[in-house]
Amino acid sequence: MSLSRIALIGGLYGVEFTRIGYTGGIEPHPCYLHIGDHTEVVEVNYNKRIISLSDILRVFFENHDYTMPLPKRYASSIFFTESSQYDEAASFMRTRLSYPAVTRLSPLVTYHDAEHMFHKYYLQNTPTVMLQLLYEYNWDWKTWFSEFNILPFVTKLKLSSRLMRRMNAALSGLFPPEYVLRILDSINIPDSIKRECKLRASHIHPQCILM
After folding, report:
1. pLDDT tens-digit profile of 71-92?
2. DSSP notation for the chain
3. What is the set of domains in the chain, with CATH numbers?
4. pLDDT band at 211, cuts 50/70/90?
5. Bridge-partner residues for 40, per DSSP?
6. How many CB atoms lie within 10 A of CB 28?
7. What are residue 136's phi and psi, to 5 degrees?
8. Separation of alpha carbons 56 and 145, rounded Å
């Protein structure tokens, strides 16, 4: 599952919405254990006035081995919804990459959402932050621990996807501390939660080459 990729792209300024799922196959109900002929993907919605598709493609290609053939489940792939996206991605691959890419370009036909435990994975797996969120917003912590499911938490509190996405990015360990500070300063959460996120970031060596 592309858990680091969704956190990495979700932390970019101008990206407004991300979710993780499966596409590219004909299996009617894919899941992690029975994915069939689908590919694991990250859906990205972005504000073209702030970030370009080329910017997103640069981060995408810089942070995985696009030269390595893999089984379809994990294959380097881009699914486009407009012909202009295909043109831009194809041009990027021809002119901006140092090595020939095995990345597949395909039209998006159907998308299947991944299981809830994979959404905002790093946030869900940081109990100290989750407990503070549950306390701050008076949510039923027993429900979260029993179901390990952040989605009703987001819906019930009407917390924006932007907030959860950026917190997930801040906790991923993928970004340098100074970038994490910028992420946290851009969202409205209690200072105690920001301090916990900053403390975690200060003890992690960044794994991406974004900066």
Report:
1. 999 999 999 999 999 999 999 9
2. --HHHHHHHHTSTTEEEEEEEEESS--SS--SS--TT-EEEEEEEE-TTT--HHHHHHHHHHTS-TTS---GGG--EEEESSHHHHHHHHHHHHHT-SS----EEEE---EEEPPGGGTTHHHHT-HHHHHHHHHHTT--HHHHHHH---HHHHHHHT--HHHHHHHHHHTSS-S-HHHHHHHHHTS---HHHHHHHHHHHHTS-------
3. 3-113 (3.30.1060.10), 120-202 (no CATH)
4. very low
5. 22
6. 8
7. -60, -40
8. 34
Map tokens 């549950």 to a residue: 134
Find tokens 């949510």 and name the residue. 139
The two three-digit tokens of residue 41, written as one number? 């993907």
